[in-house]
Amino acid sequence: MKKINAYKIISLVALIVLLFILILPQTYNVNKKQKAEECIRNMKTIYEAIERYMMEREEDFTGTAQDLMRMNYLKKTFECPENGVGDKYFMHGDFKTGEIIVRCPHEEKFPDHKLPESILE
User: Are residues 25 and 35 in the same domain?
Assistant: First the structure.
């Protein structure tokens, strides 16, 4: 009987540890770097779509990711992975100057959610 109780205690401790491991990243945002990288990938994809749009149409781009998707420059719309639904990127392209702006809606709160300078050159 004592062996069965020991197994139950070990199983209970293992279950608690497993739950803690599963909940920890969500609670303490351990995957912060991963979300920043995903956000930057999203912005880079949007940047490239705006660049193609301006080259093909020879005009400024003012719109949303949905507009780019409707015109077949993007395969899907993107949102910042940090806060989820409804977090649309700010985007604009100036054909004459070649300047393209793509910014995360949470740039102030998450300063690492910025396109690197190397892509902007």
Answer: no
Q: What predicted TM-score, i.e. pTM, was given to this entire model?
A: 0.72
More confident residue, 29 or 105: 105
Given a cut of 80, whether residue 31 has pLDDT beyond it is no
Number of folded domains that form the chain: 2
What's the residue count for the chain?
A: 121
- Which range of residues forms the domain containing residue 54? 31-120
Longest CA pairwise span in the chain (Å): 82
Letter string b/e over residues 74-106, b meaning 16 or more CB atoms within 10 A of that residue's CB: beebbbbbbeeeeeebebebeeeeeebbbebbb
Q: Please tell me whether residues 8 and 54 are part of one structural domain.
A: no
Element (H, E) at 115: none
Closest CA to 43 of 2, 80, 86: 80
